[in-house]
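Q: I'm writing up a methods section and want to include an example of the input and output format. Could you take the sequence below and give the corresponding predicted structure tokens, formatted cleanly so I can copy it straight into the document?
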Amino acid sequence: MVEPARPPQPAPLVEVVPAAPQPGYHWVKGHYRWEGNHWAWVPGHWRGLTSKPGKLERPGAFS
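A: Here is the clean output for your methods example:
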């Protein structure tokens, strides 16, 4: 089965970043994800930084 060519990804949406829920959080920007037959926007969100040994999280990194 050959998947048809995807249309180009739309321009990112402009997000208003709300205040962090508390210190130690970083903003993960929104992005588009391919949903089988269209681009779907995944909104940005706050993510807490981890302090688990051996686990490194960077702002904007996917988990």
